[in-house]
Amino acid sequence: MQCIAALLVIGIIFQQIIYLQSIQKSKLKEKSILDDLSPLEPLENMGHKNSTESNLEVKLSELKSLRDKELISEGEFKKMREKLLEI
Predict the structure, then answer these.
(1) pLDDT tens, the chain, 87 aa long
(2) Prediction pTM value
(3) ∠ CA 37-41-44 to the nearest 5 degrees?
(4) Would you list the domain boundaries of the chain?
């Protein structure tokens, strides 16, 4: 009788070990799938025309501010402005 009880306990222990191993394997698979993903690239070039225009407005405004504070000369301002506007 004791042999049968011992065999049952050993069988239950083996079932638990197999179950825990299968859980660990599934967690490893999920982790490896996430690790293989590459980071997303910025969508800067895919924006709408409005976002490009507003970005240009911000840069021109900053450029004007630098000129107004006399941090750049009028000539530098014109060159940078032409470069931004692609004139």
Answers:
(1) 788 888 888 989 989 998 888 887 766 555 555 566 666 666 665 555 556 668 889 999 999 999 999 999 999 999 999 998 886
(2) 0.40
(3) 165
(4) 1-35, 48-87
